[in-house]
Amino acid sequence: MFIRQKKNKSGSISVQIISKVGGNYKVIKTIGSSEREDQVKILVDQAKLDLISLVGQSSLFISEQDVQLENYLNTLENIQIRTIGPELIFGKIYDSIGYNAIEEDLFRHLVIARLAFPLSKLKTIEYIYRYQGVTIGLDQVYRFLDKLNDKLKEQVEQISYQHTLKTLEGEIGIVFYDMTTLYFESNEEDDFRMNGFSKDGKHHLPQIYLGLLVGLGGYPIGYDLFEGKLFEGDTLIPVIDKLTKKFNLARPIIVADAGLLTKANMDTLAGLGYTYIIGARAKSEKTIIKNEILSLQLNDGETKVIHKTDGNRLIISYSEKRAKKDEHNRKRGLNRLEKQVKSGKLTKQNINNKGYNKYLRMKGKVDIEIDYDKYNADKQWDGLKGYITNTALSPSTVLEQYKNLWHIEKAFRMSKSDLRIRPIYHRLKKRIEAHICLSFAAYSIYKELERILHKNHSSISILQAAELTHTMYQLQIRLPESKKNKLITLKMDELQKELWKIVSSNYI
């Protein structure tokens, strides 16, 4: 509604409250008329008061243009408003990496959806329809997943590797390998999903192993999947050998944590011509080596080299910060054990080498007690960490390269939290493999976004960037005169503008 001043044939001016309904104007109320300007002003003021009463709002004046705009907006439908941020940001990076070479639109939709809204496949197709205007049936998605891994995994890995090679300026001289467990929300086991040692603490649920190989900085090279009960050390050689052959890598230095340290692995790697840096289990060394380690008397930040009979070097470092952390963890573990012993909850089955259970021992035939001598003896190891290598690298370089393993740990965190790769609800192996393939591609895009944000000194985190895409909207309207459809991108806020500027300027 709005106020209209209508000039009459008599020369007077009528003051009216008008409403436009369905394109027609209707007089709601005539306040009065007058030829005198001061009286007309009084009538207009009265009309404003009446208008407030009629529409229940505080606006002092509603123009005809306002009414027209309001009426038009009332005709808009939800389908005309779309979230374009995910495609605008992640789609741009998707293309820049080279995934647009994959001639499967559904692959693109599923990868970008995992980046922006990591949901179940059912929720994903709802998102694709709601925000992309693309109708996809659930059966269509499952049929695609059934063939995805066999059809696209090789291509996805190849594209990711080529991008990593480009990012690292054409040289991959060192690679990092680690494993993690992915659990399922089901108690059913099969030949693939099996109960085993869970790094997620979900020992009661079946799981699989994901082995991930990355370059410096955590940029992805390739991955592989293994059944859930496999010993993780048995995965190192198959993955390294397969991926280095696939991408023709010239025997890079292999960096892995202590969980993958076995004599068989080191012998095989050396036999194949690889050099390696692997976290050492210093406490598991032979007595003569352990005594030598404990006699070193290292200062903070100092390293010493012990030459082993097998030709490897054992590099031992000491950190006061690590020593304080080790002591804190030991005390916390002891306190927990003391409470459990006091409560009588522990049995002889609890006596093992898992965590701080190593401090337990039998007292008689039934009772459990804590071996405080063993606990106190462990104190001398606080702050010490070892590294096994057959490289000729200096001790400081070995430590520096090993510390880069945090990138792969970060990759797992990102995949598990930001991309919600777990838990996995699929049951069929092909669909599980497809789910991981989609997540691997999504991780590659995440890493690239992280790289360009850092390059441009932006304070925007990758998680924040994903959230910013949720409210980048586009409006589809039909022009009243030409009857043509027009897409209008709604104004972004300052952070959205910054994100879009960074992405668009890096990929022209």
Detailed description of the structure:
This protein is α+β, with helices and mostly antiparallel strands. It has 4 domains: 2-73, no CATH class; 78-85 and 465-506, no CATH class; 93-257 and 405-455, no CATH class; 322-381, no CATH class. 44% of the residues lie in helices and 20% in strands. Strands 7-6-5-8-9-14-11-10 form an 8-stranded mixed sheet, sandwiched between helices. It has a 3-stranded antiparallel sheet with strand order 1-2-3. Strands 4-15-16 form a 3-stranded antiparallel sheet. Helix 3 packs across helix 14 (429-455), helix 3 packs parallel to helix 16 and helix 4 packs across helix 14 (429-455). The model has no long low-confidence stretch (mean pLDDT 84).
Describe the structure in brief.
The protein has 508 residues and is an alpha+beta fold. It has helices at residues 37-55, 64-73, 85-97, 105-116, 121-132, 138-167, 236-246, 263-271, 287-294, 320-343, 372-377, 395-403, 406-416, 429-455, 462-469, 494-506, and strands at 2-7, 13-21, 24-34, 81-83, 174-183, 207-214, 220-227, 253-256, 276-280, 303-307, 313-318, 360-363, 367-370, 384-389, 473-478, 485-489. Helix 3 (85-97) packs parallel to helix 16 (494-506) and helix 4 (105-116) packs across helix 5 (121-132).
